[in-house]
Inverse folding.
């Protein structure tokens, strides 16, 4: 449907590139809003009706707030897709520094966190959720 052989795969990789950066932006935006003392449900409703709207914000944002962190797509598979996209970029002599950077953030979601001031065996995913959802002190 998308063209010659390989076009479908590249369409999927394009989709994953866009989603990876968008979802990362949603999480960082929600963390910023939370630390600013804003009502996160209101934030999602307000910015979700403007230029920042996306599936990641309007569908996954409320799931994050409800602590519904069940996978819609496994992070490990997402990383694999980003690796495929980065390999294709190398083949095309194309540099996508945003993709390379956001891939590192997703890798941190599955890697154990080893900082001594954090809880033992806490993963980056748990840390992000805990920072986002913990009560203000």
């Amino acid at each position: 449907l998308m063209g010659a052989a390989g076009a479908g795969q590249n369409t999927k990789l394009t989709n994953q590139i866009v989603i990876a950066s968008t979802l990362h932006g949603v999480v960082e935006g929600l963390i910023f809003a939370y630390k600013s003392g804003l009502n996160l449900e209101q934030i999602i409703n307000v910015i979700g009706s403007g230029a920042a709207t996306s599936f990641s914000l309007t569908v996954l944002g409320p799931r994050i707030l409800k602590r519904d962190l069940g996978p819609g797509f496994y992070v490990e598979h997402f990383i694999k897709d980003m690796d495929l996209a980065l390999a294709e970029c190398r083949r095309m002599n194309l540099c996508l520094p945003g993709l390379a950077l956001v891939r590192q953030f997703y890798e941190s979601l599955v890697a154990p966190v080893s900082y001594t001031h954090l809880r033992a065996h806490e993963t980056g995913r748990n840390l992000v959720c805990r920072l986002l959802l913990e009560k203000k002190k």
